[in-house]
Specification:
By secondary structure, this protein is an alpha+beta fold. It contains five helices and ten strands; from the N terminus they run ααββαββαββββββα. It has helices at about 1-20, 30-35, 55-65, 105-115, 185-200; strands spanning about 40-45, 50-55, 80-85, 95-100, 120-125, 130-135, 140-145, 150, 165, 170-175.
C-alpha cells in the first residue's frame, strides 16, 4: 500500500513538472502597481493596460532605404508585439489580447492548446486560420492572419533591374476571454448612444441578422 502511494505521489510530481503554464495568464491577476512595474501604460478612455514593442530599427531602415533608393521592408519585425489587457468594472479583467509576429511563439501557443484543450476546434476563411477552445473556465483563441504583400522594385529606368519583392508575413493573435464584460466610461456612453438610436428604430441590421 505504501509503495502504491509513493508511486502515485511520484506520478503527480511528474505530471506537475511537465504541465505547461497557461500562457499570459499571469496578467489576469496583476494589480495596477504590477502593470506599471512591467511597463504597461494605462489608457483611461478605454480602461485598458497596454504594452507595445515596435522595432525602431525597422523604421529607421525603411527611411534610409527610401533615401538610398533601396528596398524598404514594410514587414513588422519578428519580435514586435502588443499586449492589451481590457478591464471590466472593479479592476477585473475582461480579456487579454496579444498580437505578435514570431512563428516560434505561435507554435508554442498552438502546442499548448493541442495538449491541454480537448474541445479545440479550428476554422479557416480566406487568409485567416482560427483555433478556439476553453481552458480552466476561460475562452481562448489563437488566430493566424496571412498578409500577402508583393511589389516591384520601381524607381529605375532599367527594366532589367526591376525585381519582384515579396514582403508577405503572418500576423498572430492570442486572446483569453473571461466572463467579465469590458467596461469604461467611453464604452458606456457609446452603448447608451447605440441604445437610443435603436429605440428610434434606426438600428442597422447586420448581415447575420438578415440571414
Amino acid at each position: 500500500m505504501k509503495k502504491n502511494l509513493l508511486l502515485i505521489f511520484a506520478l503527480c510530481i511528474a505530471i506537475a513538472a511537465n504541465a505547461q503554464e497557461f500562457p499570459y495568464s499571469k496578467y489576469l491577476n496583476f494589480s495596477r502597481k504590477e502593470f506599471r512595474e512591467n511597463g504597461f501604460k494605462y489608457n483611461e478612455k478605454t480602461n485598458a493596460w497596454c504594452l507595445t514593442k515596435s522595432s525602431g530599427w525597422n523604421t529607421a531602415f525603411t527611411v534610409l532605404a527610401i533615401i538610398a533608393d533601396a528596398y524598404e521592408d514594410v514587414r513588422p519585425a519578428r519580435n514586435d508585439y502588443s499586449i492589451v489587457v481590457q478591464m471590466g468594472e472593479d479592476d477585473t479583467v475582461s480579456f487579454i489580447e496579444v498580437e505578435f509576429y514570431n512563428n516560434d511563439t505561435y507554435h508554442k501557443l498552438l502546442t499548448f492548446m493541442k495538449n491541454n484543450c480537448p474541445d479545440m476546434v479550428d476554422t479557416s476563411s480566406g487568409k485567416l486560420i482560427k483555433y478556439q477552445a476553453t481552458y480552466d473556465n476561460y475562452g481562448i483563441e489563437l488566430d493566424m492572419k496571412q498578409h500577402i504583400v508583393s511589389r516591384t522594385s520601381a524607381r529605375t529606368i532599367d527594366p532589367k533591374a526591376i525585381k519582384n519583392v515579396d514582403e508577405s508575413y503572418n500576423e498572430y493573435e492570442f486572446i483569453i476571454r473571461t466572463d467579465v464584460e469590458p467596461w469604461s466610461k467611453y464604452l458606456e456612453k457609446r452603448a447608451a448612444k447605440s441604445a437610443k438610436r435603436d429605440a428610434k428604430g434606426k438600428k442597422k441590421r447586420t448581415v447575420n441578422e438578415l440571414m
